Amino acid sequence: MATDVEVPALGESITEGTLAQWLKKPGETVAADEPIASLETDKVSVEVPSPIAGVLTEQLAGEGDTVAVGAVIARIDQSATASAAPAAPKADAAVAATTTNPAGAGETPALRGDATAPVAEADHDDDQITTLSPAVRRAVLEYHVDPTSIRGTGKDGRLTKDDVIAAAQGKGAPTPTAAPAPQAKAPAAPPAPAAPAPQAKPPAPIGERKEERVKMTRMRQTIARRLKEAQNTAAMLTTFNDVDMSAVIDARARYKDLFEKKHGIRLGFMGFFVKAVALATKDVPSVNASIEGEEIVYHDYLDVSVAVSAPKGLVVPVVRDADRMSFAEIEKTIADFGKRAKEGSLTADDMAGGTFTISNGGVFGSLLSTPIINPPQSAVLGMHRIEERPIVKDGQIVARPMMYLALSYDHRLIDGREAVTFLVRVKEAIEDPTRLLIDL
Predict the structure, then answer these.
(1) Max Cα distance, the chain (Å)
(2) Are strands 318-319 and 295-297 parallel, antiparallel or unpaired?
(3) Alpha-carbon distances of 348 from 311, 333, 359, rounded to whole Å
(4) Which fold has domain 223-438?
(5) CATH number for the segment(s) 1-88
(6) What is the spatial distance between Cα 361 and Cα 345, in angstroms, rounded to a whole number?
């Protein structure tokens, strides 16, 4: 008897997602709780587990389809046995394994799209025949490579687009293009009378000029929409300052080994900035507030959204009650978020809420930026790279490790005086970390 596989709950206020990739094919054996598909929502990627152990008998949705929470997308048969040659998914024409094709210049009938393409020979390694994502499938068709001969570097050994491109480049052959059909050779015509010299034509471009159209992921569409809404709604303004990082760098150098030995985590810069923000919001609470209708909501807690880079875009998991956390708790939480972002295992709940955002473009080399507010928050602090610059100290020009800070804020709620005061408080706390200990 077959058991339906339904789209699980995806988080608060999320009612649908996009089926990004099938991880199992019809006819394959699956274990209970083993992921069989990957869904992409507005915020995170979610794996759909099998409710029972058995064989995947049907796929009821294709990659790229929008599926609602609770919708049936597959069926698992507990009594079935694995098929030696599983059928292709209903809505996903997976690229078949190659067969010998001397006349096709390396491309298989399946890659050419022939309706009568033969199936893979029985002696092919089934483990190599993987379900390909749309982007990988396009690359396979474009570069005319055999997907079964490529070792995947993605999760669970799945192929990525980079794997296909690397394999094609390893062959040393450019992307093949369709050659024009041969035409019958016509008899030579008598020489025509001399024509006027043609006008000079623009030189043809050298090398390949390719374009690729890729549908925006659901997450990227959401990022674009929310950022544009922020620009259209908030009266956004950015104020800047710079901060001497000497004291923090010295503190880290002095205590990093003891800190890591005791807490099992490295002492980073973010802990200092989260603490500095917590201190500054006590003096300027409007920076940690938000507008709801005609009311201002002030929060007596600090939930910091920390911008983290993920493979499919920027995500902002929330460090909750950051004002009550120790340095070690902050660093452990942020490190865990970074690890899970790379793995794609962050949940919608991890990113729900947040009263203030810190974005660190410095890790990518950014010198200065104007970050955009994350609605419904009213402010975001941008950190940047540290570099030695000449400054005047006690009448002397000296080199100091300096960082530019940027505070973008909603001018509807936060006045310029408050924004500048907040940023100065952060600067003072970073340049004299003792203030963080004595709450000054």
Answers:
(1) 99
(2) unpaired
(3) 16, 16, 19
(4) Chloramphenicol Acetyltransferase (3.30.559)
(5) 2.40.50.100
(6) 23
Q: Top-level CATH class of 93-176? A: few secondary structures
Is beta strand 236-244 parallel, antiparallel or unpaired with respect to 356-360? unpaired
In the chain, pLDDT over 90 holds for what percent of residues?
38
Listed by start position, the domains of the chain span 1-88, 93-176, 223-438
Tokens 């910091």: give the residue: 304
- Nearest-10 crossing angle of helices 327-343, 246-263: 80
Q: Mind listing the pLDDT tens digit for each residue in 130-166?
A: 456 666 777 777 787 788 788 887 766 777 877 888 8
Where in the sequence numbering do the catalytic residues fall?
411, 415
Contact 97, 117 (CB under 8 A): no
* 141 Cβ contact partners less than 8 Å away, ≥ 6 residues apart: 95, 111
- Reading the block at residue 236, the tokens are 């956004």
Q: Which of 67, 58, 19, 56 is nearest to 40 (CA)?
A: 19
